[in-house]
Amino acid sequence: MEISPSGSFWWEREDLSYHGNSLFLAGRDLEQIAQELGTPLFVYSAQRVRQNITRIRTALDKTGIPFSLFYAMKANRFTPLLTFLKSTGLCGIDACSPEEVLHARSCGFDANEISYTACSVSPADLAVVLRQKGILINCDSISMIRKIGEVCPGMEIGIRLNPSMGVGYGSVSVLRYSGDKTSKFGIYAEQLDEALSTARKYNLSVVRIHFHTGCGYLSSQLDAWNKIIGTCLDMAKGIDKLREVNLGGGLGLPHTSLDKPMDLDAWAAVIASNFSGRGLAVQVEPGDYIAKDGGVLLLTVNTVETKKNTTFAGVNGGFNLAVEPFYYSLPCEPLVCTLRGDIADVFAADAQKSYSICGNINEALDVWMENKSMPEIREGDTLAMINAGGYASAMSSNHCMRGVFRECLLP
Ligand SMILES: Cc1ncc(COP(=O)(O)O)c(C=O)c1O
Q: Going by DSSP bridges, is the β-strand pair 114-117/92-95 parallel, antiparallel, or unpaired?
């Protein structure tokens, strides 16, 4: 890991940095929290999450376009985090299953603060969702429009469009939800007439379009995102009661030193250029951008051993606790929580060693990072995996019966 000429690390920020030898998040010494609560431990900063939302809201405010922000709780549904978000009043919730809807309700969100966009929806799913009076519903198939029409004729709905284009982090194809390959998400252009006539048959008013075409896009991909918006607005030309457009989530954040942070003003300018003066309200539903860099996963180093020419540092959690580095090429940078010496000394190029950081799951892919230059690691050390606030605990599994972990929200 390199310190930049300005003396900082790429991931460093005011609330996440070394103070002396110790790594701090939100004013708290992470090693100390690990000692007190044990590992594996997810630690989230409520204030960082709030700042992430505020940054998005500020950029959107400047456009003058009416907007609503829904936090995609699939990124992180930790109850204290959701109740904190409710208390800020800064966002509603994007939910994708009946259980998510009910969890959001139990955390204090009213039905009309919840937007529901799901796939492969069953009548039983809809029975739960339609009981929530005022919830916003986006249909991602003609089947779903028909099912709603049969039980709730006359209601207002949104429809999820599939523009056959997608944008997501780098070139990771599994992070694109739409594109050359036909996907399950949303209604394609050639299905639109049938979708709208099905809605008419049941007197359903289509007041909203929705599209979410991928996850993790950054500023350099805003042109592609702009084309997606234009294509979806073209697709929606025949929808006469259209009054709002849900632009989905997908806003990305840096995962490596090569990534630049999303330029939110440039992002909002794309929205302004498409919506100014159109009389349409805009909705956004980011998850990752809000939650991910607010959290770290603290793990204990169980083993350090050199095999052939590779030194493995084996930690007490693997892809069962954070699948993204392993499946989606979205790495979590590992940081040593307590340095053994002055920061400049331990990060000097000749003081660092190369490690393969591995989990404790019996599968070959359970490698957090290979050939990682880091200050010396010893057994018993605590590592912090950064960017673990989104799609980590929420996607965790009990594989190898190692699914036990704790979560903690810092105020
Ligand atoms: C419909 C929908 N909206 C929002 C999101 C949130 O995406 P992200 O966390 O990348 O912002 C997702 C993620 O899969 C999604 O499917």
A: parallel
- Choosing from 257, 291, 325, the residue where a domain stops is 291
343-362 exposure pattern, b = at least 16 Cβ within 10 A, e = fewer: beebbeeeebeebbbbbbbe
CA of 273 to the centre of ligand 1 (A): 23
Q: Are residues 130 and 26 in the same domain?
A: no
Boundary residue ending a domain (291, 318, 349):
291
Q: pLDDT (tens digit, 9 = 90+) per residue, 281-326? A: 999 999 999 999 999 999 999 999 999 999 999 999 999 999 999 9
Ligand 1 mutation pick, 183, 215, 247, max ligand atoms within 8 A of CB: 215
Whole-structure pTM value: 0.97
What is the end-to-end Cα distance of the chain in Å, rounded? 30
Is residue 302 in some structural domain? yes
Instruction: Judge whether 257 lies within some domain.
Output: yes
Which ligand 1 atom lies nearest to the CA of residue 210?
Answer: 1
Q: Are residues 246 and 320 in the same domain?
A: no
Angle, vertex CA 118, rays to CA 112 and CA 120, nearest 5: 145
